């Protein structure tokens, strides 16, 4: 299993669960608008959380732990587009090119976890 992480507002995740599909790409942008769901690897998550959710109380956030083997949509590791929130660089981020089935989420973690890290 490749572990992919996606940070989101708890209310957004909870509202998606009954449908069985999560379709938000990133804060304020849907899968339909963006074309994919932004994800992170564990070491990338603190930077992403700071850029997207610095103004959000940690208790309002949740980290979705996704089992990539449970996805039917393709996952591509791609560099950020210049000017995107994570900035230019050579590090690639996982992108899920389709809806996220609720069944692919194998854990939900509070943000921040122990010592300010997810988990």
From TrEMBL:
Name of the protein: DUF952 domain-containing protein
Domain of life of the organism encoding this protein: Bacteria
InterPro entries linked to this entry: DUF952
Gene3D superfamilies in the cross-refs: Protein of unknown function DUF952 (3.20.170.20)
């Amino acid at each position: 299993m490749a572990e992919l992480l996606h940070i989101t507002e708890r209310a957004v995740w909870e509202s998606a669960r009954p449908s069985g599909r999560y379709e938000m790409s990133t804060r304020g942008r849907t899968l339909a608008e963006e074309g994919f769901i932004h994800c992170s690897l564990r070491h990338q998550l603190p930077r992403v959380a700071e850029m997207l959710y610095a103004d959000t109380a940690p208790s309002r956030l949740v980290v979705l732990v996704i089992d990539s083997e449970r996805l039917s949509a393709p996952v591509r590791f791609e560099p950020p587009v210049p000017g995107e929130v994570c900035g230019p660089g050579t590090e690639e981020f996982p992108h899920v090119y389709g809806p996220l089935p609720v069944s692919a989420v194998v854990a939900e973690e509070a943000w921040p976890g122990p010592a300010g890290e997810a988990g």
